[in-house]
Amino acid sequence: MEHFDCVVVGGGMVGAASALTLAQLGLQVALVEKFSPEDFSTEQALDLRVSAISLASQNLLSQVGAWQQVQQWRTCPYKRLGVWEHESAYTEFNADDIEQSHLGHIVENRLIQLALWQQINTMSNIHTFCPESLISLEQDNNKATLTLTNSTLTANLVIGADGAQSKVREMSAIGMTGWDYQQSAMLINVETSMCQQDITWQQFFETGPVAFLPLPGQSTLGGYASLVWYHQRDEITRLASLSNLQLQQEIMKSFPKRLGDIKVLGKGDFPLTRRHANTYQKKHVLLLGDAAHTINPMAGQGVNLGFKDVLALQHVIAEAIGNGEVWHDESVLARYEKMRRKENLLMMSTMDALYASFSHPSPLIKAARNIALLAVNKVPFLNSTIKNKALAYACGL
Ligand SMILES: Cc1cc2nc3c(=O)[nH]c(=O)nc-3n(C[C@H](O)[C@H](O)[C@H](O)COP(=O)(O)OP(=O)(O)OC[C@H]3O[C@@H](n4cnc5c(N)ncnc54)[C@H](O)[C@@H]3O)c2cc1C
């Protein structure tokens, strides 16, 4: 039976980043993951799962040495962000307004994970268990014991970074609140007639938004993009059953004209759920990322919140070690929860308020939200305060 300071269960983007930040503090870390990340080659098609990585997340990935590799592979920086419902209330956010060169990058999730794993493989104090799966978890007063498919480990702290369906959360009997939005999101990779763009945009409809995220590279048609189509579950199921050509025709009918010509390359759909763990830590167990909270992906904040969890945990543990405290004591871990719960809740509630407002059919509410968007764009005071503050917050600054 091997003992570690920390065992991180789940080597996705958040778990892998956490293993690295804890190893940077000199802790002995084990990382348990079900699937080995696939190697990268430039001929591989762009993956469907992409994320809008904020400036703050980029800083974290640089800190652990992964960003440089991600950039060498492929990323698409974006400088502008367009939001509107009615065309006349189109509002655009620009990196220049907050004195930045860009607002973020669109990156394939698997490349972030792979770059983090490459860094992990250079660290002598991280031991990877992969492919491995968590079978059971026991917590006593002194430690946690994890039974994996092929090994048994003990740890002072088990970190559940095993995603929305977290087994660590379930096995440690941490409850959660949440609901299904009764909506799904369809991710669609397309070729576009336009070359690589520096804008990501989202138009709101009562049935849910449609979004455009630019992707890197040159295609025979022009460039590439990821489209996100939010709608009722039944409608997404219908769209998912169409051929690529039929889906293309539906997109041309429903998306705004600024999309231009497209050719559908691939698609996938995901149900939208909201989940929040009742506590982030309990008896040698701590939750990070989607294991602790899943949020409506409308504003592209999910993994960015997870990376903020990672930084907060590194900060409280570093401080405890510096003060000579027992770094895995409940009182120390409670500081992590204090730092993160309020902010995660605020972001989740803001997304819910936006979602509810834009899906409300009342003509009065529709007029009010368009006037609000118009005001934020056209009234100089609102433009330079609210708009820029919201933008800086979304970038994690
Ligand atoms: C449609 C959609 C669009 C999104 N767009 C964005 C965006 O633009 N920007 C953004 O910030 N976020 C976005 N998100 C959210 C983002 O994808 C998630 O927040 C992020 O993937 C969570 O990362 P994670 O590492 O916490 O969990 P996961 O990515 O789920 O990783 C969990 C890992 O744990 C492993 N695992 C699970 N169970 C076990 C086990 N028992 N034993 C061992 N290993 C296990 C899994 O194999 C996996 O590797 C989007 C989500 C959706 C659904």
Please characterize this protein's 3D structure:
This protein is α+β, with helices and mostly antiparallel strands and 397 residues long. The protein has two domains: 2-77 and 103-178 and 274-357, FAD/NAD(P)-binding domain; 184-271, D-Amino Acid Oxidase, subunit A, domain 2 (D-Amino Acid Oxidase, Chain A, domain 2, 2-Layer Sandwich), CATH 3.30.9. 36% of the residues lie in helices and 30% in strands. It has eleven helices and 19 strands. Strands 1, 2, 8, 9, 10, 11, 17 and 18 form an eight-stranded mixed beta sheet that branches. Strands 6-5-13-14-15-12-16-19 form an eight-stranded mixed beta sheet, sandwiched between helices. A three-stranded antiparallel beta sheet has the order 3-7-4. α1 runs parallel beside α8. The radius of gyration is 22 Å and the shape is globular. The two termini are 43 Å apart. Bound molecules: flavin-adenine dinucleotide. Flavin-adenine dinucleotide is lined by residues 9-15, 32-35, 51-52, 109, 133-134, 161-163, 167, 185, 187, 270, 289-290, 297, 300-304, 306.
CATH architecture of the largest domain: 3-Layer(bba) Sandwich
What's the end-to-end separation, in Å?
A: 43 Å
Percent in strands = 25-35%
Q: How would a crystallographer describe the biggest sheet?
A: 8 strands, mixed
Indicate the mean pLDDT.
93
Bound heterogens, unique: flavin-adenine dinucleotide
Helicity, as a percent range: 25-40%
Low-confidence stretches: none
CATH topology of the largest domain: FAD/NAD(P)-binding domain
Overall 3D shape: globular
The computed structural class is alpha+beta
Using only C-alpha atoms, the radius of gyration works out to 22 Å
Could you spell the SSE succession in H and E letters? EHEEHHEEEEHEEEEHEEEEHHEEEEHHHH
Number of helices: 11
Number of strands: 19
Work out the count of structural domains: 2
CATH superfamily of the largest domain: FAD/NAD(P)-binding domain
